[in-house]
Amino acid sequence: MTSRKSTEERRKEIADAAIKIIGERGLREFTAARIAQEVGIKDGTIFRHFKDMNEITLAVLDRLQELLEAAPRSTGDPLERLEVFVLSRLHSVTVQRGIQSLLFSDQLSHALGAEGPKRVAALRNRGREFVRSCLREAAEKGLLREDLDIEGAVLLVTGTVMGFLFAATDGALPAPAGEMERRCWQTLRSALARKQVLS
Question: Which one of 82, 129, 165, 172 is least enclosed by Cβ atoms within 10 Å?
Fold first, then answer.
């Protein structure tokens, strides 16, 4: 006899399925029928756990935030924290492409209606602020090149993640994903760090 999943478990499962569908197939496929098929339940069952599709979309945003903030955080020096952050973002592209593609497209914003752009921007801004804080601390500790522009470096780091996403999505990574994750980080570190702190 199989046990029923709790409402919380089922809501998380439905939100994960929605992330995958929107991220990989777009909003056209973001339907109750498609979500139910992905989860392996009947269409009507979804609405035992959610009032409507808008509530599912809000759960998607909450789940994205939860997944992104669950990424391991190093307590080491600021460049180690930045490394963990970058590698986890790059890895998430290959493990669950829907996460990053939703953050870098306007699909989720549109699905959320008027409040969507602000909520998605706030989620992206948290990532940028984390990068910025690591870079500022690293600069204060003399770990970065003296001529480095922090705001330009924030864009370099986030742009690398976006570029990796597009290359992975297009099947254009020139080496296995794990190898390219490490190579991307080494390239970023070489561009940011003072030569004497390179390992």
Answer: 172
User: What is the crossing angle of helices 177-192 and 150-169, to 10°?
Assistant: 160
Q: Write the DSSP string, 50-67.
A: -SSHHHHHHHHHHHHHHH
Give, for all 199 residues of the chain, the pLDDT tens digit.
445 788 889 999 999 998 888 877 877 888 999 999 999 998 888 999 999 888 898 888 888 888 777 655 667 789 999 999 899 888 877 776 667 667 776 777 777 777 778 888 888 898 899 999 999 999 999 999 999 999 999 999 999 988 998 888 788 999 999 999 999 999 999 999 998 644 4
Q: Which domains does the chain have, with CATH numbers?
A: 7-62 (1.10.10.60), 72-197 (1.10.357.10)
- SS3 per residue for 127-193: HHHHHHHHHHHHHHCCCECCCCCHHHHHHHHHHHHHHHHHHHHCCCCCCCHHHHHHHHHHHHHHHHE
Task: Tell me the angle at which helices 78-95 and 150-169 cross, rounded to the nearest 10 degrees.
Answer: 20
Residue 72: exposure state from Cβ atoms within 10 A (0-12, 13-18, ≥19): exposed
Contact yes or no for 79/197 (Cβ under 8 A): yes
